[in-house]
Amino acid sequence: MDYLDLYPIHWPVKGKYKDTWRALEHLYRERKVRAIGVSNFLKHHLEDILQSAEIVPMVNQMEFHPHLVQQELIDYCNEHHIQYEAWSPMMQGKIFELDFIKDIADKYGKSPAQIVLRWDLQKGVVTIPKSSKKDRIIANTDIFDFELSAEDMRYLDGLENGQRFGPDSDSFDF
Ligand SMILES: NC(=O)c1ccc[n+]([C@@H]2O[C@H](COP(=O)([O-])OP(=O)(O)OC[C@H]3O[C@@H](n4cnc5c(N)ncnc54)[C@H](OP(=O)(O)O)[C@@H]3O)[C@@H](O)[C@H]2O)c1
Question: At 110, is the secondary structure helix, strand, or coil?
Fold first, then answer.
């Protein structure tokens, strides 16, 4: 291929990510990559990189689901025009064990996956759910024919409890 659509730094490895960012800026200017971004960058990592960056990261890909919202980080990204993107949006399959998501799904006549992915969409979060099954991949895109009420959006936002299914950037042993 001639170019990549998006190339993010996977994790903020201390002492390395600023040099890596300079390399990504070079690739962007060379038009080898259409969008450059970061992943797993908390607010303090973003503040640090923005001090010397010539190009603001276009995307921050983070663990994001009803138990890990991190609204302050989303607000910071929105303020700096950094697109927030959700990895493990369905808690690696664990959302299907939550009765309260099933209750909302029944109310809208949708699946729990469709409810959570629609919540992502209405929050302005780009989402990258994964499934190994064709019928689920297709069903997971069928989220454009309904809208969650403001009350249900607030309810889903309120499920935040800081639970992670992947590592925390500040304590991950790179
Ligand atoms: N940037 C990072 O550091 C980072 C870290 C982790 C993950 N990621 C990326 O994030 C993406 C998604 O994350 P993830 O795979 O960890 O978790 P996920 O998308 O939250 O969950 C995937 C699980 O949900 C199940 N599933 C999907 N759709 C379903 C449906 N409609 N009904 C029932 N079950 C369903 C899948 O099972 P089946 O396959 O059986 O359908 C799979 O077990 C991946 O592309 C991954 O590479 C990025």
Answer: coil
Does the Cβ of 93 fall within 6 Å of ligand 1?
yes
- How does pLDDT run across 47-91, given as a tens digit for each residue? 999 999 999 999 999 999 999 999 999 999 999 999 999 999 999
- SS3 for 120-173, per residue? HHHCCCEECCCCCCHHHHHHHCCCCCCCCCHHHHHHHHCCCCCCCCCCCCCCCC
Q: Please give the Cα distance from 91 to 111 (Å, whole number).
A: 15
Residue type, 50: L
116 CA distance to ligand 1 centroid (A)?
13
pLDDT at res. 155? 96
Ligand 1 in contact with 96 (CB < 6 A)? Answer: yes
Looking at residue 121, its amino acid is L
What pTM, to 2 d.p., does this model score? 0.96
CB of 127 within 6 A of ligand 1: the answer is no
In angstroms, what is the span from residue 7 Cα to ligand 1's centroid? 20
Overall average pLDDT of the 87-104 stretch: 96
pLDDT at res. 174: 80
